[in-house]
Structures are given as structure tokens and as C-alpha cells.
Amino acid sequence: LAGTSGGILGALAGHPFDTAKVRLQAMPSMQGASLTGCIARTIREEGFLALYKGVLSPVGMAGFLNAIVFSVESSSARLLQ
After folding, report:
1. Which of 3, 55, 58, 79 is the Cys-Cys partner for 11 at CB 3.0 to 4.6 Å?
2. Stated pTM of the model
3. Cα–Cα distance between 49 and 16 in angstroms, integer?
4. pLDDT truncated to tens, each residue of the chain (81 aa)?
């Protein structure tokens, strides 16, 4: 449960920055803009939720992968004791 929650929260916290990075790299209209300028423009033109477009896939995978990592770590620690 802790690994899943941590993975989901991490993905939710970082996704707006990933969205801005992709927009800066791929959109000609964003060329020359700063990260904060890109985020501000995205919010102004499309709304706050535009920063979270496509968030379901990373959230699902991060939660799943962190759950696996934490359970393997826990099992390994018990075996090594």
C-alpha cells in the first residue's frame, strides 16, 4: 500500500513538469519559452488540468512498479535475516 501510494503521488507531482518539457521540445510555438513561461501559458490558454493530460498511464505504472519494488524489498529483507 505504501509503495503504491508513493508511486502515485510521485507521478502526480512530476507530471506537470514532464508535460511542460515535452511541450518545450515538441511545440514550435513554445520555442524560446522558459519552463515557468510554458507552464503559465498552458494554464492561461488551456486551464490547469492541461498539465495533467496523459497522466493515467504514468500513475498506473508508477503505482504498480513501486508496489512490486516495496514487496520485493520486504521479502528480501525477511529472507536475509
Report:
1. 58
2. 0.72
3. 9
4. 667 787 788 889 999 999 999 999 999 988 888 999 999 999 999 999 999 999 998 888 887 887 788 889 889 999 998
